[in-house]
């Protein structure tokens, strides 16, 4: 299986810095190509959110470059080992950022949504409310569940999805890396078919665009090559900004073929 990849990130209309961080990595292994995509949406005053998201991105990219690369080279990749390493890494980064914040009197944190595709499977580690979607000929689905107050209220039947879009608690997370006393990542896994696209994005992308608009521009039928994918990423980012989204906006788009 092979992959096309594209991305876009934008500071948005209101913020002075882009506190999102993104990464895309690919590696050719004896068992085929692996792809790793990560989006972290930082939060905190001044540059604190940017620091948090970059720190967590770097930690997970280092994992891919070293631990995963060695497992793949030795034909020793194991799902359970990977999930254990990801959990330990998220907990360690939470503690590290917590200490930094306490020492510097700075509140900071970041979401984490990371997607590994390898040997026709995907694995996901998720903290916060960035999102990962899967799109194929059957349609589109959100794989991850938002770890936010409004998502909890929707699940309990106390809010509708439409009400949640305008709820003042929209930005309150149930947990994030760096600002939570403890962190317990969520994990997802599944099979990957050819002609499927995956979108990893910060929440700033999701508020002002519909599922239909995402699918029409980012579904497999709309992703002929990386150039077209890039154009579509920029188009939807601009559309979100035209609709007055205030947050940073970040997208990583992958197509398996």
How is this structure best described in words?
The chain is an alpha+beta fold. It has one domain (3-256): PPM-type phosphatase domain (Phosphatase 2c, domain 1), CATH 3.60.40.10. The protein has helices at residues 48-73, 79-103, 149-155, 161-166, 203-206, 211-218, 226-242; strands at 3-10, 20-29, 32-44, 108-110, 112-118, 121-127, 131-136, 139-142, 186-191, 196-201, 249-256. Strands 2, 3, 4, 5, 6 and 9 form a six-stranded antiparallel beta sheet that branches. Strands 1-11-10-7-8 form a five-stranded antiparallel beta sheet. A hairpin with a 2-residue loop joins strand 5 (112-118) and strand 6. Helix 1 packs antiparallel against helix 2 (79-103) and helix 6 runs antiparallel to helix 7. The radius of gyration is 18 Å and the shape is globular. The mean pLDDT is 96.
CATH architecture tag: 4-Layer Sandwich
Biggest sheet descriptor: 6 strands, antiparallel
- Net shape: globular
Mean pLDDT: 96
Q: How many domains is the backbone divided into?
A: 1
- In percent, how helical is the residue content? 25-40%
Uncertain parts: none
Question: What's this model, at a glance?
Answer:
By secondary structure, the protein is an alpha+beta fold.
Name its key features.
single chain, about 260 residues, Phosphatase 2c, domain 1, 6-stranded antiparallel β-sheet, 5-stranded antiparallel β-sheet, 7 helices, 11 strands, about 35% helix, about 30% strand
């Amino acid at each position: 299986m092979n992959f096309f990849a594209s991305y876009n990130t934008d500071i948005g209309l209101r913020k002075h810095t882009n506190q999102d961080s993104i990464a895309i990595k690919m590696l050719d292994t004896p068992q085929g190509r692996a792809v790793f995509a990560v989006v972290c949406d930082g939060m905190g005053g001044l540059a604190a959110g940017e620091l948090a998201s970059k720190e967590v991105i770097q930690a997970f990219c280092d994992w891919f470059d070293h631990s995963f690369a060695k497992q793949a080279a030795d034909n020793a990749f194991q799902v359970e080992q990977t999930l254990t390493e990801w959990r330990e890494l998220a907990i360690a980064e939470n503690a590290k950022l917590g200490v930094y914040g306490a020492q510097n009197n700075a509140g900071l944190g970041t979401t984490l949504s990371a997607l590994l595709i390898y040997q026709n499977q995907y694995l996901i580690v998720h903290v916060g409310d960035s999102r990962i979607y899967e799109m194929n000929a059957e349609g589109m689905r959100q794989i991850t569940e938002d770890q936010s107050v409004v998502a909890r209220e929707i699940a309990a039947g106390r809010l509708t999805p439409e009400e949640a879009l305008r709820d003042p608690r929209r930005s309150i997370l149930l947990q994030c890396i760096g600002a939570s006393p403890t962190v317990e990542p969520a994990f997802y896994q599944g099979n990957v078919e050819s002609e499927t696209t995956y979108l990893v994005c910060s929440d700033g992308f999701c508020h002002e665009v519909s599922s239909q608009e995402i699918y029409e521009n980012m579904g497999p039928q709309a992703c002929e090559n990386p150039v077209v994918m890039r154009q579509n990423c920029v188009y939807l980012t601009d559309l979100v900004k035209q609709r007055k989204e205030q947050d940073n906006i970040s997208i990583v788009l992958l197509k398996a073929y």
